[in-house]
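User: Structure with S-adenosylmethionine, tokens only please.
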Amino acid sequence: MLRYLLFPVETITYGPSYGWIRLMVRSPRPLDPDEVWERITGRLPPAFDWLRKNYPPTFMRSLLIAGKMRQAHVRGIAAHYDVSNAFYELFLDSKYMFYTCADFPTGRETIEEAQAIKADHLVSLIDPKPGERILELGCGWGAMLKRIYEETHDKANLHGFTLSQEQVAYNGDNNGFNVEFRDFIKTDYPAEHYDKIYSIGAWEHVRPKDIFPLMQKLHGALKPGGRLVQHFFCRNEKRIPTTAVAGQVFFPGSLNSAYADHVKWNEAAGFTITQRSIHDYRPTLRAWFENLVANRDRAIELVGVETYNRYLVFFPSAYRYFDDGVGMLVRWVMQKR
Ligand SMILES: C[S@@+](CC[C@H](N)C(=O)[O-])C[C@H]1O[C@@H](n2cnc3c(N)ncnc32)[C@H](O)[C@@H]1O
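Assistant:
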């Protein structure tokens, strides 16, 4: 009953997408997957579609987001990632456990194959060599560390940071990588220490005001000629979209930046972008959704109905974000000048 009372209040305050998402997530029963997918990614009545893209208006969005950004970054990360490692195992690829966009060149790949193809592409961009000091910012369950280790067989020089305690424990128990619980935004990096630094799916958590100072720090942390590789999604417009407000349900305290700002900050910090490509996140989101649905009962046993519903709504909502062209997935290589 409470959820129906909150619905109009949250819709008026945060917008129709936020209101609907909350209403669905709070359902006391597991949501019907086909209905959720169709309702979120399908054709919407034109008036609702206009409203969800334009309400709240820009000035209100900025105020709401400023309020949300006051919360500690670390709490927002924990809210999303410290759910249950076993739960994530139900829908991610089993070999690496990547929680980032895969590559489906023909559209017929399984999630296992698509993540392996993505990992191969990233290896070719990072170009890791034994003996090189390599750091991953936001390493998740160690997926890319594993793939790099397959190339270099050099664990001693591989290092990862995450803000999820569950992921630190997972890496310790399963991979034996040097993974630290550490905020890569606040870290003071040793000068000219690393040959390569990369991040996959972590940059979108960094708030716009933090990006340029962080880029400067990373520039200082790389050896001369060092390389920074990033895979992340950003928004296409500088204006904060309404999705940034609705997205607070899934990633509290995170706000991504505009593509043009990233380019400007990277270059101003002393990097030259030497390669870049754009990738389609949608097939990955659909694959995770299907895996989650196939494992519904176990998922609910592990995390409860509300969290199950939240992820069931999250995947199609993110699908819609890319389908509407609000954001795009970028992979690029930057060389220290
Ligand atoms: C979407 S996951 C991606 C994980 C992994 N790179 C992958 O490809 O599967 C985002 C990761 O970024 C980490 N992260 C986000 N902000 C961070 C910060 N400020 N410091 C350290 N880790 C952070 C999270 O803890 C999580 O491990």
